[in-house]
Protein 1
Amino acid sequence: MWAQYGIEFLGLALVHFLAVILPGPDFAITVRNTIRFGVRIGSITAIGIGAGISIHVFYTLVGLGLIIQHHTWLMSIFRICGALYLIYLGWGLLRNHSSSVIDSNENIGSTQILSQWKAFSIGFMTNALNPKATIFFLAIFTTLVNPQTPMKIQIFYGIWMCMINALWFIVVAVLFSQPIVRNKFLSMGRKFETFIGIVFIIFAMNLIFTSL
């Protein structure tokens, strides 16, 4: 079976990994949560991002991807929903006036604590509503994967991509949780969160304009 589908899998895995490592909303929210709340919350955010891929896998496998692909107005709805969520996140960061004094390992000393469930749900929604992920599955998954590939193999592809997404952003969380890196960002205080908020809103505006 590996001999039959190995090349297809390797091609999909390579393209997917290259798409994952490109900085985007997933990267930004992982870095922000790691810097502010520590590696545990950053890693849980990463797991949520990985789980969010399951939404794209699901609608692709059940055939909804083809419907979306052939109806541009549906794609526009996806883009606008993603944009609105990014604006929601960005505006929340711009309005956040809480202290930036955080312990170098976890969130001890923070005036605001992010629950594990909240961290997971933020990661999940950021990816599930990420139009970049939607476009990837519509344009790449449906192109590189033969329609005749058995469903169980396609499900394996989807599980693999969920795992790789989660693992990559856990690595990002670990890297940005290192004291020398984290403290550098924390020293920026409110400027760091304002920057991330502005980045989210810029992403959102770009999505809205490309949907018009």
Protein 2
Amino acid sequence: MPWIHLHIGDNGMAKACCVANIPFGNINEKNLEEIWKGDAINQIREKFSKGESDKRCAKCIHVEQAGGKSMRLETFEKYGDLKPIENILPYYFDIRFSNVCNFRCRTCWHGASSKWFQDAKALGRHVGEKAIIKNIKDFDAFISKTGTALKQAKEIYIAGGEPMVTEEHYLLLEWLIKNGNTDLLLRYNTNFSKLTFKQWDVLQLWEQFSNVEIMASIDGIGELGEYIRKEMDWEKILINREHIRRLKNIQFKVSPTVSVFNMEYLPEMYKEMVSTNFIRPKDIYLNLLERPNYYNIQIFSKEQKAAIQKSYAVFFEWLSKNGIDSFVKDQFQVCLDYMEEKDDSRLWSKFLNETEKLDEVQK
């Protein structure tokens, strides 16, 4: 990945990816070429070239050990036939402009959501004294530093915060259209609550791109989803789902964050979404939560885990009976395997305590 991919996130820091804390330099302070050809990134390239792993890549390593498909393997599937060492600049970007967001998701925090600021302040967990944390300080300066690479990008992944309420996201789409790079994969992680913002209608912009993939962060249907992701309106989500059907260049998937809040319920959610044509059977991407550890599915008791295993066995029979690709079962199986990897049931009381505190703050 360090030959083709660059993540730009916290305070403008360019890193190996959105999970591994492997910093290469700050895009607010350096030009992209300086970072891309710098000592920090070349050191990790040399390490990987020798077949050595890095402890900061633990997330992908754990997923692969559990039999799952990590971000690393997914990237190889998409771009493994290219010759990345000969490429001058990255062509797969992950850009997080800021923490601007309109949700207070239970498994999130102030650093990734401006809406979380007041709650974080009440809990003594805020980052600084301002709600909005800008990663990219100046959009025009960012474009001047990265424009050459963005013009030849094959994939741009945009997350947040929430992209659909982030002004720089729309400015980037307009810039890509103006500069003729619309034949690429434009991929999103979004709470899918909004399709318009200020003067922009994102559907009008998306229809000018060849391939748009939406990964909708939905952790539950109806009341449960609204509880986990504060400010979510399930009826609005359903309306937005219908709105995007007219664009044939859009792939729509759901990407639940798998936590103690929804692990038991996920099979029922999946069955409901498939039966109502909210998603096609293969259009699910499960994202295992690791932190905070008191929301991690490894905190279930032995008895709870046994009950979940039993209910998933019934679900797997349903998948088989309905001829659904093993790709789906494999994702759920990875969650079960990860759940069983460790006994963290000592954290159950902390989960209850944290939930009670947040319930009080969020009413």
Protein 3
Amino acid sequence: METIADIKEALLQNSESTGEEQKDRISAVDFKMVTFSLAGKDYAIDIMKVKEIAKAGHFTYVPNTMPFVLGVHNLRGDIISIIDLRRFFNIEIPTRSKDALESMLVVNVGDQLFGVVVDVIDKVVGIQKSSIQPPHPLFGDINIKYIYGVVESHDRLYVLLDVDRIFGVRTPAPTLAEKVQIVEQEYVEAAPAQLTSTTATPVVNVQPQVAQPKLDVLVEKDSDYTFIVDSLQKLKGFYVTSVNEIWTKRRYEEWIGQRGRDNSQLVNAQEADDFLSSFYSSNTGAFWPKEYAENIYKALPENNSKQICVWNPGCGKGYEAYSLACILRKKYPDARIKIYAQDVDLLSISNAPLLVVPPEVANSWYAPFVVQSVSGTYSFKPEIKEMVLFEYHDCMHTNNMPAIDMIFSRDLISFLKPDIQAALLEDFDEKLKGNGKIILGENESLAYLSNWSETLVGSVVVYGKQ
């Protein structure tokens, strides 16, 4: 079995050279990193990600956040989230007094600032980028996916962390909110003018299909279609399965009609975005207008339970979770409600509890659920905030939570690999109560599974157990 000493020795052997070569390497420093320690081990971050080094304490606590979020801090007028890297990596933290100042790296990730708390900040070390070795599974105390590489310098072995991955930053692309602003709401029906609980709701039962639906034989054998399916997977991580193949087939036919077969192939991420532009559900990544809120309100089942648990995987920046919380409070005024809002985007999850409500939104149907501060800004009332627990969590891993009354998971399943889709649907089945309901993305379906029933309530499709 390899040890850290073995790896260090290998790195030293790889770096052996003549005296002249060593001088050349020293003079060719092309990478600098800020080094620090966690539980006595040496770590580093690319200096280009570090804005400054600071000592700070007395962070403002934010309720309903993950344990590694210490709170927020006013850094010369900028309100930044404070992340304890030790808690993030489940490293034991020594007992400290409440007044102790923490060593903090202020990092710039995705144009947002974060304060990263560590044990001790050491120094800036210059190296050759070519000397960085790939991450090694021996470093089992932290997930290898968060390690950019390992590097030896001055007889010390540093674990170089990948800050972008830690904070869930993806390759630059238009945000979901930007994309859905141009999407026509094709399937949203007009709703009553006011959000009330007395509006009669027509319900149409749709018989589930026992057999899994198949695409037309002509489409299945169409090489252009196959190329688009493969390109969506490679360019955007969108996996065509029975959950979304009905939409994909229809969209493919539209795409061919618009562009012609000679120009149908997806050659870059922008074209893949164009193809997927009509896939995303209405009002994703944005506050919900009254009409859409009414549709969701009507789709909620009757439930006399004193405690209602809701699972909201893929919650994004919190617009969806808070909007859902308001609807749930309206529908079930006497129940104790808890929403488990999860996402793998640490930037979004950390900032979600601080979501500010614009005045025009605060004066809409959201009015009973928001409060205005002395400075004039609006935010959700404490009773709404306390309903939502924002968690940094990948639903592909174990989902530990109580029995669930409702799952609200729009447009998430389609961006998971087929085997993960199947595992997550099994998890849905296991955790959802017998009378529980699921709302998926508007272009996702469970109709092909015989153990789920499909019901159309207004313009929203709701799934329940058979």
Protein 4
Amino acid sequence: MHFGFSYVGLAFILMLMIPNLVWTKNQPKDYENYAKNENKVLGLFERIGEALVTGLLLIFSDFNFHGFTWWSLWLLASFILMILYEIYWIRYFKSEKTMKDFYRSILGIPVAGATLPVLASGMIAVYGKNPFLGAATIILGIGHIGIHLGHKKEAQIAD
């Protein structure tokens, strides 16, 4: 592992943050009713995971592209997942913005808005051979995916 700025990490973070900033003004109808019931332990995991993943993505140059090898397929897979994540958001922003719209799967991936970036982060961790990002991704996944599965269940949204 090598300390240094990661432009791949920055691109990943921008792909995450820009739609989330737009979402703050376009939340699903009644979302606040579900958010107030979030599991506090899962919320703690989510916040810790977000901070760790964000920081780690930026401080290791191992996540940058270093020429094509078979190992680069992990990075490519990560960006394919992030492109699906952007498609998920475009679809959501064009919808009526209901809880059902927010929790629609994409290509069979449940709670896609939570699951896709966690999977992508895990693949970047593998690409960069970084166990710290891998562990942070697991922490994030437990919290973030757990919270959104809870919201989906509470809203009684079927797949």
